Aminotransferase class V-fold PLP-dependent enzyme
Amino acid sequence: MIISQFGDEFETLQAEIARGPIFPCVTPDEIRSYLASRYDFKKTRTLEEVISDVEQMLRTWQVQVTHPRYFGLFNPSVTLASVIADTLVAMYNPQLANWRTSPVANEIERHTLGWLTAKFGLPATTIATFTSGGTEANLSAVVVALTRAFPDYGEHGLRHLAASPAIYLTEEAHNGYNKIAHMTGLGRRALRTVATDRHLKLDLGDLERRVAEDRQNGFSPFMVVGTAGTTAAGIIDPLDEIGRFCREEGLWFHADAAWGGAAIISPKLKHYLSGIDTADSITCDAHKWFSVPMGCGMFFCRHPDRVLEAFRVDISYMPKKTDQTVTDPLMTSVQWSRRFIGLKLFMALAQHGESGQADLIEHQTRMGNVLREALDASGWRIINSTPLPLVCFTRDGLVPARFLATLREQQVAWMSEASIGGAPVLRACITSFRTTEADIHWVVDEMNRLFLQDSGQSMSNQTVAIPVQSTSR
Ligand SMILES: *Cc1c(COP(=O)(O)O)cnc(C)c1O
């Protein structure tokens, strides 16, 4: 089939992307007027022409997240198998609302999720579903946890509850919980920000205090979120201890491992996630560290009856189940009509095998260590402490925002700014299995050069600025 010949083209495109640029220089107006002038949708064009124009736009007007020097926000380089999978899905267009319409797609997802369920150490009775991403998986976790903690929630809603429910997480947890608290009707104030220790990990003592205090004050604590790989600094919360505390207190333990969860398949890294097997639910995004295209999130829950209770529907027009061992996905998911999300992970695993997929993760982890050491050796200060390939750093005299702009303009690398303890720092995350040691050393050398140049300039600015200020006074 033609699609299997796509491999050469894929490599050519990756090589072309690697030649740069990484960062686009464009204004909204430029793109808007281009689109307005070419696409009024009255004139027709050949498909070849449209494809070529769209590719040209994608190459010039976006941050190239698959570039080896994109050190960004968990947006991975993608594997060929997973790209072909997404194309096949679009072509055959299976419907994953129910089982009967797409038996094979259902069973491929079940098979793939069963493999990862076992890796996480969850029981075989766990219900797992593919989601649009981590946010949908986290939303599912909150809805199911509410359903278990408050039997009246499903039929009568939050307003029927005697006490206000509360969720515990740290400031480093994903910001999406704010939206989830808003959408579920919990309200954003239901989120309790637990203090972190000096390594930015959830402080268990503070968690205990906050839960006890809330109980005394008539609130209803029901859920604790432990993050495995925080967005800003890659921190792994003490999952073991959170699990133990939640069991003792009868609270739901949700492990948000959207990015870091993939480490579970690496024999070298999995011990960093110790305790994740005690979670009531887990979020893991294949579209982050499994190097497949967006969106490919996953939700795992060890309480199948609560999942089925939370998402149940009674429908007459759906094909009836004949086999009690199958569950229609719409009964276990926020989504109804659903794309065959899981094929990209299945095909990547089928091609590379478990160990090949682990190699990709371990390589990026090694590159993270190379980056950390190279920065440290040339006078940068590392701010965060994590085994995952995410480095937050700064140095005296650095203005992060200005320095980042220079790095981007000069196409050195794409990095972001993070706020750690209220102070802005640079954040570089290795998200591409294509990033090499040579890439990293080149970037660090360039940063050293630019920093010297930059601090030289601001020194001379300062000597000019002071007399000007004093005369104007
Ligand atoms: C990325 C991320 C999310 C959100 O996932 P999306 O796939 O972007 O919806 C939630 N939690 C953590 C820890 C993340 O890294």
Notes: The first helix runs from residue 6 to 18. Residues 460-473 have pLDDT under 50 and may be disordered.
